[in-house]
Specification:
Blueprint (H helix, E strand, L loop, with lengths): L3 E5 L3 H12 L3 E6 L2 H6 L6 E4 L5 H5 L8 E4 L5 H13 L4 E5 L3 H9 L4 E3 L6 H8 L4 E6 L4 E6 L10 H4 L1 H5 L1 E7 L5 E2 L12 E7 L3 H4 L1
Parallel strand pairs: 1-2, 1-4, 2-3, 4-5, 5-6
Antiparallel strand pairs: 7-8, 8-11, 9-10, 9-11
Helix pairs in contact: 1-6
């Protein structure tokens, strides 16, 4: 079963994130106080709701407790961001990510319960969507319009097998270029070395092949 996610706030960042998640097949709920914007998203999301995200009662009525991930994207509205983060954590959401417009805002949101902070100048909504939608991806970097670099954990079915056995280049059209184990340092990987849970892999792939990898 895929993850259920809520994107609260549909500015430029929130809209790109919600669009990317939905196109990847994610169960995504979008919320904003702009009725016209929510109408536009009615066919680009699983659920689209109008709510005042600075109003505690309205945020509580969203049913965030059913979400695996909540992303709060109102980076310019500290009051609404604080309210959404606090309610989401009170309702037991495992992962709450909040967009911050400044380092000071980031510190405040962390203090009220945000598990992770998204800084718009450091990452795009599409990049965050790639990471959130995968159980394996840790980091995603777009090299150009076609090629990307991914830091990921080995898939469970890969564990105990080496690269020669897995033949990832043929099955997934990806290349493993480096590995990090418990030493904390990146190094070239022995193609006959079995993959283990403590490894991180650095993989180069074309964007069209990401769905196979996910």
């Amino acid at each position: 079963m895929g993850k259920s996610m809520a994107v609260l706030g549909l500015g430029r960042y929130g809209s790109s994130l919600a669009n990317a998640l939905y196109e990847m097949g994610t169960d995504v709920m979008v919320v904003d106080n702009d009725k016209d914007l929510i109408q536009d998203f009615s066919d680009k999301s699983t659920v689209a709701m109008v709510a005042d995200l600075a109003n505690e009662d309205e945020v509580k009525e969203l049913g965030l407790s059913n979400m695996d991930v909540v992303i709060v994207t109102m980076g310019s509205d500290l009051q609404a961001s604080i309210m959404c983060v606090m309610v989401a954590k009170e309702q037991g959401v495992p992962l709450v990510i909040a967009k911050a417009a400044s380092e000071r805002m980031a510190k405040v949101l962390k203090r009220v319960g945000a598990d992770q902070i998204a800084m718009p100048e450091k990452e795009s909504g599409i990049r965050l969507a790639r990471i959130l939608n995968s159980n394996s991806f840790l980091e995603f970097f777009a090299i150009d319009e076609n090629l990307c670099l991914i830091k990921m954990k080995p898939k469970e079915k890969w564990l105990g097998k080496n690269l020669m056995e897995l033949n990832l280049r043929k099955k997934y059209r990806v290349n493993v270029i480096s590995v990090m184990d418990g030493s904390g340092k990146w190094s070239s990987i022995d193609p006959e070395r079995p993959l283990t849970e403590d490894m991180d892999l650095l993989v180069v792939a074309e964007n069209d092949d990401l769905k196979k990898l996910q």
